[in-house]
Amino acid sequence: MTQAPLNRRAFLAAGGAAAATLALYARSVPAQPVSEGALSLAGTWRFALDRDDKGVTSGWFGRHLTGEADIQLPGILQTQGYGDEITAETQFVAALPRDMRWYLLPQYKAYTQPSHVEVPYLSQPVRHYLGVAWYQRDIDIPAAWAGKRVTLGLERTRWRTDVYIDDRLAGSNRSLVAPHDVDLGLLTPGKHRLSIRIDNRMQDPPYRPDGHSVSDAEGATWNGIVGRIELAATTPVWIDDVQVFPDLAAKSARVRVRLGNLTGKPGKGVLKAGAVSVPVNWTKDGAEAVLDVPMPDAQAWSEFTPVLQSLSVILTGPQADDRRDVRFGMREIRADGQYIRLNGELLNFRATHDGGGFPLTGYPATDVATWARIIAICKNWGLNGIRFHSWCPPEAAFIAADEAGFYLQPECGMWNSFDPDGKMLAVLNDETQRLLKAYGNHPSLIMLAASNEPAGHYAEQLPGWDRAWREADPRRLYTDGTGRWAPPPGGPGTPFAADYLITGGLARGPRGWFGSDYEESLRKVRQGASLPCIGHEVGQWCAYPDFSVIDKFSGKGDYAAFADGIGSGKEPYMHPGNYIIMRDSAEEHGLLPRNKALAQASGRFQVACYKEEIEANLRTPSYSGYELLDLHDYLGQGGALIGMLDAFWEEKGYVTPEAFRQYNGATVPLARLKDRVFTSDQTLSADIELAHYGPAPLQGIAPVWRITDAAGKAVASGVLPVRDVPRGKNLALGTVTMALAHLPAPAAYRLEVALQGTAFGNSWPFWLYPAEVKASVPEGVTVTASWDAAKAALAAGGRVLFLSGAPDQPVPDLALTTVPVFWNRLMNPRRTWMLGLLNDADHAALRGFPTEAHCDWQWSDLLARTTAMNVEALPRDLTPVVQPIDDWNRNLRLAMLFECRVGQGRLMATSFDLSEAGLSGHAGAPSLRRSLFDYMASEAFQPQTAIAPDALDGWLATRYVAPVTVTTPPATSDIVDPGQIRTQ
User: Is pLDDT above 90 for 983?
Assistant: First the structure.
């Protein structure tokens, strides 16, 4: 059976909703107990593991707990030396990659030995434990609390807690998204024994094991209690919940209050909020009340005006003397056709994904300072929000976001399949109630998603979740599935149940790059309906790792975000086993000395792809923003090095936040520039537009443009019409048109557009080549695709350009692509291995083909349907002129262009198709061939590496052969979500 929808009244009364759906849920108490007079329970606790789960039947709560030792709380057991050492057979909670029998694969045999276990699929926890643990201490109830109701507040723990006071069970909680707070009732002053049983095993109904609230992918299987651990006291009649609903039009706030009553008797008193007082009558079960509080001078809250309001809600009466201080923001958000409006103004959501990775502590930060640092980093990179993938952060994140003017979209701790009986739906509704009760007043919580990519019976069940919670609490927008959503209940053309969609698939990726957009794809997604869309997991382009990150896992650094290091632990939570395997592989293949160069070059290509992806979203008329995946690296699911920052929120060095903000910010000039490679007989033409979501319209802006050469010198410039700019996107600024015949070629240029007198500007590289290129082969140079002819010329001391050609049979494992690895190779074993190119940009062979050290769009024009040469069999001192960067799981030494001495001869070998037929349709190919010719005809052609002819004979036969890499077979054709995942 499914849980009935909640109306506003039911939502406010839902303190006991959990018990109505699943009996193990406890009666909840206020998410934030009164701070004044609370007693902290931080410190040393008695502790024992309950591996056989016998503690309840054996009555551990009824006696002084004896076990391994004591433990410090707040904290977790794994970083304090408890739990199981990692072995090859450790059963991690994860299904992506689906086959976790990694220890049976031959390439990982060396990493399965005791005391030297390194796991390739994630940065492994220092210890692992799934089961029951008991935490116990004595508490002293003050005499002043006699006759008062006592509550225990556990800010963040996981997954189920059972709380015993002396010999009785006081309450239980099961939640991944909110505090575990328990009503201890009326306690006599003096000593009491407090015992907490925590079970972090998979609960029933079982979750998908990749959800970030439950998975080892980002370290979420810890066992402990973090954040505040405290006792508080209230009068027997108390304020159970306060939720504030701003009304901007009326300049007021509606305060909805829920009262609890432990006396068992009715009564009456006075409830006051701000300057407004109302009489209130309570029954033996409590009461509900509504107060409308004028807010005539309150300023609207937004990213530009993060102004917060405070209200004190006070209850007085017989056995009732309680107070709640509430902070909130005066803001309203709504869907308006295909757009989102915040306080009536258009909103563009620019967020990063966050999977809850805290590599030093394991558990998420519960202090405001850490979250303030993370948010400041995000804002510095041009973002205005975070999407929390299948988890919800502690309250500190919301407080920091409120104060910074930063938008949050948490999810209800789920990446789940919904069963036909509605068991998972019941859990979802309970978690939603808990989440909104705990964090609903925070203005930063502007959107809420039920689940990441739901599966199973979600299409028929989740529309009811949308409707029920929108009715119960309309302070935010709701979407039933991030990246996968329920279709319109009434069929195509009728409204969706969700307020907005988070769309992937066709509405992202290269199809919208280079001046295009995704509008046509969004029309298909909407099926004739009208609602806002936000780009799902935009990006996911990988870069090669810089192995210096390994040192950061020690917990001994000066960290940009994690100033507290390992927190209360004795050692860091995560061990970089996957990075160590990557590093060892790079060393084995001779790539480790070039690590920095490989990381920087692949990173620059990654950034170029992110720029195209973001700009395509900004050009799409009806897109309301995007959620990157990710600004920083992801440590699980095989390791997805998809961030411009590392997993510690620190810069990698290949792009600055200032440069990234040019196209990832509130105000971005855009160009619909289709081509990036031109010949001198062509004309550059680009329509220029603006996406502007700054605090206010711009008056009298003067757009200017210029074309600069590689030295940054302007070679052409112009102005576009002065105009006023409203907030929004696709704001036409004019067209840049320029004949290119008078510009020197070959050369690299950049089209730059700026708004004069502002900090807003953007630029796009392009490359110009001569329309006519001298095709003759220099005297003394042999160009051949025949190795026999090449050998003969080399034996005679000649200079040879060997056109290696293409293999007779396609070799997908050596094929190059125009984009890098997506997410990571271990999760997507059928996709590309390529992470860009590392070019010797100063090499004389490339003098006539302008390039930097990384792959860019002039190279992409030449890469389609090409195959890299495997040069593993050649000497390690052979440094290719153009080297494809192989995936870090394989680390093959590859080449597209290299040179060497062969006896008295000199060889240049290439896998680019520089034959006469291969030049057609590639503007830069004739110039690349000419550049090689000119270099090979000069005295500069002096290769440093010597290779014997017989060695090249052997290499030639294997140059297009890749070693067989044993990988786990995909279990399904759906690499994102197979729907039903078995947990064992």
Answer: no
Q: What is the pLDDT of residues 472-513, one digit of tens each?
A: 999 999 999 999 999 999 999 999 999 999 999 889 999 999
Measured distance CA(84)–CA(51) in Å, rounded: 11
**What would the pLDDT profile of 386-429 be if each residue is shown by its tens digit?**
999 999 999 999 999 999 999 999 999 999 999 999 999 999 99
Across the beta sheet with 132-141, the strand order is 69-73, 43-50, 132-141, 190-199, 160-165, 168-174
List the end-to-end C-alpha distance of the chain, in Å, as a whole number.
26
Q: Give the tens place of pLDDT for each residue, 188-227.
A: 999 999 999 999 999 999 999 999 999 999 999 999 999 9
- For position 67, what pLDDT does the model report? 67
For the segment 269-279, the average pLDDT, to the nearest whole number, is 97
Sign of the torsion angle spanned by Cα atoms 78, 84, 87, 89: negative
Rg of the Cα atoms in the chain = 31
Q: 556 vs 14, 548, 552, 565, 688, CA distance in Å?
A: 45, 14, 7, 7, 48
Please tell me the distance from the alpha carbon of residue 226 to that of residue 443, in angstroms, as a whole number: 24
Q: How many CB atoms lie within 10 A of CB 792?
A: 15
Alpha carbon distance 120, 789 (integer Å): 46
**Mean pLDDT in residue range 903-926:** 96
The secondary structure of residue 499, as a DSSP letter, is S
Task: Report how far residue 426's alpha carbon sits from residue 917's, in angstroms, rounded to the nearest whole number.
Answer: 64
Give me the helix-helix angle, 423-439 and 458-472, nearest 10°.
Answer: 30
Exposed / middle / buried, residue 787 (Cβ in 10 Å: 0-12, 13-18, 19+): middle
274-275-276-281 Cα dihedral, nearest 10 degrees: 70
Q: Which two tokens stand for residue 501?
A: 């969609």
Give the pLDDT confidence of 729-781 residue by residue, as tens digits. Answer: 999 999 999 999 999 999 999 999 999 999 999 999 999 999 999 999 999 99
CA distances from 269 to 272, 279, 293, 300, 874 (A): 10, 6, 19, 33, 88
509 in Cβ contact with 609 (< 8 Å): no
Q: Which two tokens stand for residue 805?
A: 């050609």
- Please determine, for residue 27, whether its predicted confidence score (pLDDT) is greater than 90: no
Identity (one letter) of the amino acid at 83? G
Cα(805)–Cα(783) distance, rounded to whole angstroms?
12
The DSSP string of 52-111 is TS-TTTTTGGGS---SSEEEEESEESGGGT-SEEP-TT---S--SSS---GGGSGGGGGG
- Helix, strand or coil for residue 439? helix
CB 637 within 8 A of CB 824: yes
CA separation for the pair 886, 874 (Å, rounded) = 17
Nearest CA among 865, 874, 864, 866 for reference residue 898 = 874
Rounded distance between C-alpha atoms, residue 180 and residue 158, angstroms: 9
Backbone angles phi, psi at 515, to 5 degrees: 90, -5
Kindly report, residue by residue over 157-171, the tens digit of the pLDDT: 999 999 999 999 999
CB-count exposure of residue 478 (10 Å: 0-12, 13-18, 19+): buried
CB 148 within 8 A of CB 606: no
Spatial strand order in the sheet of 237-247: 276-282, 267-273, 309-317, 320-328, 237-247, 252-261, 287-294
Does position 176 have pLDDT exceeding 90, yes or no? yes
Which candidate, 189, 108, 183, places its Cα nearest to that of 152? 183
Q: Are strands 723-725 and 781-784 parallel, antiparallel or unpaired?
A: unpaired
Query: What would the DSSP string read from start to end of 645-694?
Result: B-TTS-B-SSS-HHHHHTTSSSEEEEEE---SEEETTSEEEEEEEEEE-S
Residues in the chain: 984
